[in-house]
Amino acid sequence: MANEHVNRVVVIGTGFVGSSYAFALMNQGISDELVLIDLHESKAIGDVMDLNHGKVFAPQPTNIWYGDYSDCKEADLVVICAGANQKPGETRIDLVDKNIQIFKTIVHSVMESGFDGIFLVATNPVDILTYATWKFSGLPKERVIGSGTILDTARFRYLLGDYFDVAPNNVHAYIIGEHGDTELPVWSHAEIGSIPVDQFLKRNASYKQEDLEKIFMNVRDAAYQIIEKKGATYYGIAMGLVRITKAILHNENAILTVSAYLDDEYGEKDIYIGVPAIINRSGIREVLEIALNEAEQQQFKHSVKVLKEIVAPRLADVHQPK
């Protein structure tokens, strides 16, 4: 027992998303150690105190403390939730320049500690900032992961389940592409149980194709709707981050729609984008290349193009440290 590995997770940024993630992580008892880092020291220390006061109700007593970048050296996973928030009327892409500069400082500070684990990026625009984290860190692409379209996929499954009156766990469907306005539903592989959605439509005359299109639009625009109503989204993405964390720390080989680096998958290279991938202790074990129909292929290419047009002028000349 003395040599048993202790799982340490470091959360950088204890705003709405970071603190919600820490709360959800502790409640599921997934990590042994949880370190919170934030520029606003008093806020993060307050979170540590608050979380520790609930420790007796947690499934296991996670060791939680306020730390600094030196704590990253022994971390298995560093989760970045820091950065400027998306404001009402602002797209995720509008945040890019502000957050790239913030990330440069954060990632360099983490790597200076001697960190050799896995990065998980939550901050928007997540695909671009995951690419930036990979570039700034010099880590293998498999060990830099973005939250990608995990939340969009969860929203999709929930809304389809609500529409067809089945549990969302029995809805199998993906949203892929940019976590943003150019994302797309993979209708060609959407199933309720093992029944394709287009066949499920035929079971009841009240089910209509136009309703499915509205469902996707509600998925795509969900963040805007939530931000307008409560200022920010954080519970859903926090639980998605915990799901990825569990897949990593428990070596699950789980298939999740994360932001992964493409190296010829889907005919694309040198881009991080939301796709199904197998996640385990090593990070991204494999990107799953599902067969898209012609329309989906074109939509995916458009999503890649939009991201590359933003990435190229900002990060193409960044050379990874050796």
In short:
With 322 residues, this protein is an alpha/beta fold. It has helices spanning 16-28, 41-53, 96-112, 126-137, 150-164, 197-201, 209-220, 222-230, 235-249, 294-315, and strands spanning 8-12, 33-37, 63-66, 77-80, 118-121, 144-146, 171-172, 175-176, 184-185, 191-192, 195-196, 254-263, 269-280, 283-287. Strand 12 and strand 13 form a beta hairpin.
Quickly list its features.
322 residues; alpha/beta; Rossmann fold; L-2-Hydroxyisocaproate Dehydrogenase, Chain A, domain 2; 2 domains; six-stranded parallel β-sheet; 10 helices; 14 strands; 19% strand
SSE layout and pairing:
Elements: E1 8-12, H1 16-28, E2 33-37, H2 41-53, E3 63-66, E4 77-80, H3 96-112, E5 118-121, H4 126-137, E6 144-146, H5 150-164, E7 171-172, E8 175-176, E9 184-185, E10 191-192, E11 195-196, H6 197-201, H7 209-220, H8 222-230, H9 235-249, E12 254-263, E13 269-280, E14 283-287, H10 294-315
Parallel strand pairs: 1-2, 1-4, 2-3, 4-5, 5-6
Antiparallel strand pairs: 7-10, 8-9, 10-11, 12-13, 13-14
Give an account of the 3D structure.
It contains ten helices and 14 strands. It is globular and about 60 Å long. The model has no long low-confidence stretch (mean pLDDT 95). It has 322 residues and is of the alpha/beta class. The chain starts with 7 loop residues before the first strand and ends in a 7-residue tail after the last helix. The protein folds into two domains: 8-146, NAD(P)-binding Rossmann-like Domain (Rossmann fold, 3-Layer(aba) Sandwich), CATH 3.40.50; 150-315, Alpha-Beta Complex (L-2-Hydroxyisocaproate Dehydrogenase, Chain A, domain 2). Helix 3 (96-112) packs parallel to helix 4 (126-137) and helix 4 (126-137) crosses helix 10 (294-315). Strand 10 and strand 11 form a beta hairpin. A six-stranded parallel beta sheet has the order 3-2-1-4-5-6, sandwiched between helices. A three-stranded antiparallel beta sheet has the order 7-10-11. A three-stranded antiparallel beta sheet has the order 12-13-14.
